Amino acid sequence: MFSDLFRSNSKLDLDPERAPQTYALFDDRQGYRSYAQRCQQRFSGTMNSAPGLLTQQGLEHVAILSAPEAGELLSQALARTDESITNKPQIDYSDILMIRDKIFLETWFRKIFQPALTAKLTGYFQSHFLIYWYTFLKAKPADQAVRSFLWHCDKGPSAHLKILLYLNDMQEHRGNTIFLDRATTARFAECGYVFGSVKKRTDDLSELAKQKGIPFQPHSWDMKAGEGVAFEPSQVLHRGILPSTGFRYVLAFCLLPSPIPWDQAFTGNNHEGFRADYTWHPHAQDLMKAILVSA
Ligand SMILES: O=C(O)CCC(=O)C(=O)O
Ligand SMILES: [Fe+2]
User: Fold this and answer.
1) Which listed site, 14, 32, 54, 256, has its alpha carbon 20 to 30 Å from 213?
2) Closest C-alpha residue for ligand 1 atom 7
3) Which tens digits make up the pLDDT trace of 99-115?
4) Enclosing domain of residue 216
């Protein structure tokens, strides 16, 4: 029994130093904490006073579009796909649909970031926010979970969010995304699981949880077209559940604090994300300059 546990956990490659080092890298060395503070200082709008679930636990299920709207968005997106970049199957199972129609993007992003969602995000960041990048993902049925479909946190600043907007019903594909809240993730970070190498990710943290006395209750929802989850990907462990009975279409947004509203940042930046290759600006000051030059 002991040797089994030892073996399974040694496969996990646990290192408690990794999480604090990773947060320090982005928040301190790469300047994302002071960037967020500068965005907060510039913000002069009003904010909801009560912190919501997103602020409290690092994730929140949100109703974003109606089901017919999500269906319309999906069929328009598929009709406008210029090319799709197919990831190697051994890396992931998602195609990225490339859409460059500016009017399409502008129209739908405005429908998505309605005042209610914008207020929630502004309340979380305590500032404006921007779309750092976005991507249309088409995940295909597959048997063996890899990468995003294994438990992980995304490397990046503490203060950044992802929104996964489901464009078709879970019922159609049986795929999903499941999450642990921020407090539970912090316990797994203390025992060294978080930010390990991609090869050492696991699809089952229940054994480690049992061994360390961590309560293990993943959050997930029966995602309908138009529903989404907003979460802190660097502080909330998450994993995709592969679709099995059809394609899973998800529109993903990576959000950062911003000195100006998202729509000004987006149009000022030629209707594009700020990072075409989904990496981070080496220093947040470079991002601040890029936003203010284009504004
Ligand atoms: O595909 C999924 O459900 C998970 C995606 C993910 O890991 C992410 O967006 O950071
Ligand atoms: Fe992720």
Assistant:
1) 54
2) 148
3) 889 999 999 999 999 99
4) 2-294
